[in-house]
Amino acid sequence: MKVLVVNTGSSSIKYQVFDMKDETVLAKGLLDRVGIAGTVLVHEPQGKEKVTIKHDLSDHTSGMQLVLDVLAHPEYGCVSSLEEISAVGHRVVHGGEHFSASVIIDEAVKQVVKDCFDIAPLHNPPNLMGIEACQLLMPNVIHVGVFDTAFHQTMTPENYIYALPYDVYEHYKIRRYGFHGTSHEYVAYRAAEMLGKPYEDCKIITIHLGNGSSMAAIADGRVVDTSMGFTPLEGLVMGTRCGDLDPAIVYYLMDKLALDSRQINDYLNKKSGMLGISGVSSDLRDIIAAAAEGNGKAQLALKIFCNRVKAYIGNYLAKLNGCDCLVFTAGIGENGYDIRESICENMDWLGIKMDVEKNRVRGEEVDFSAPDSRVRLLVIPTNEELMIARDTLRLASAGQR
Ligand code: AMP
């Protein structure tokens, strides 16, 4: 069975086609600047030359049509006809409290995605546009929704209720949801395989460090806690997001800088984090380079970044009463060995001891724990698309009419 995985942003469509027989990627690509002048599609078919197509497109439906045309193109396509694609998996950021697992998309599911527009205004509207465009163009296949929030739905109220009047939860559904669930789930299952233990018997701390970063504490096959909250702004320090903050700063800054609610949202989401502290860039590679050249603010940003991850490790070790392993993943977690080293140093009292040499790898699965480390230290490259494709295959096989 061949499965198309689609991740639609406000002006982009990312896709991968999997042959689920052996889980190989037949093609992947990114259509960028949809609805903006300069639309460009970069398509990478397996075993063939990369293709770049520049063609302005006004909306996601015409964008999706171009993607499908390219997938079945006689020269650089990856299927001889779209009929070969049996199901489509859609990444959806917010499923609220409604989904604790992936689902076949029907009208009721789409209504829930819509109901969450209010709490995920940047993500859910384009996600739904992608679903509707795909359904229009591929009406005869099963479409599956895979939600970033679903994996974290096992959290219990003491970890997801904020210390606000309880009725804001009841009336506005203000609570902690958590994100990056597909990535945390993928690496957690793989970690259990590497530990050689049933997943349900493992205590795992997953550390997803990318442009957006989050952590999860997992035990008994459930997420106990995760660092992102009502929105992906809470928790760790990120490329441009501040993470945890004294909430009093928000209204203080609104006063001082004369910002309205939209502007303060932008300030905390787009101008803060590593970019805000360093003044250099949101990209960790640039910050590492600037720090190496002696830039004091870049050095400070790196310290704050690692410090926050350490603090969450401590938090989660306390909540889980110890753990079997820490798992590092995503762009920084997989590649930034110096960052992993800074995070893991001076934690031997907690049973965390690394092998510095084994840690010096980028983008590879590795166990870099020292032989006497009580906690195993793992790097596991994440693969959210494969996770979406697996869920899609499972549901499509079960729901085939
Ligand atoms: P992601 O959002 O998972 O694609 O991760 C993007 C982040 O990974 C960016 O901040 C990159 O700077 C970072 N990254 C990629 N390669 C490296 C590397 N070799 N060392 C440190 N950070 C890296």
Question: Can you describe this structure?
Answer:
The structure is a single chain. This protein has 401 residues and is an alpha/beta fold. The protein folds into two domains: 2-147, Nucleotidyltransferase, domain 5; 197-384, Nucleotidyltransferase, domain 5 (2-Layer Sandwich). 38% of the residues lie in helices and 20% in strands. The strands form two sheets. Strands 5-4-3-2-1-6-8-7 form an eight-stranded mixed sheet, sandwiched between helices. A six-stranded mixed sheet has the order 11-10-9-12-14-13, sandwiched between helices. Helix 1 (60-71) crosses helix 3 (124-137), helix 10 crosses helix 11 and helix 11 (296-320) packs across helix 13. The protein is globular. It starts with a strand and ends with a helix. The model has no long low-confidence stretch (mean pLDDT 96). Adenosine monophosphate binds next to helix 10 and helix 12.
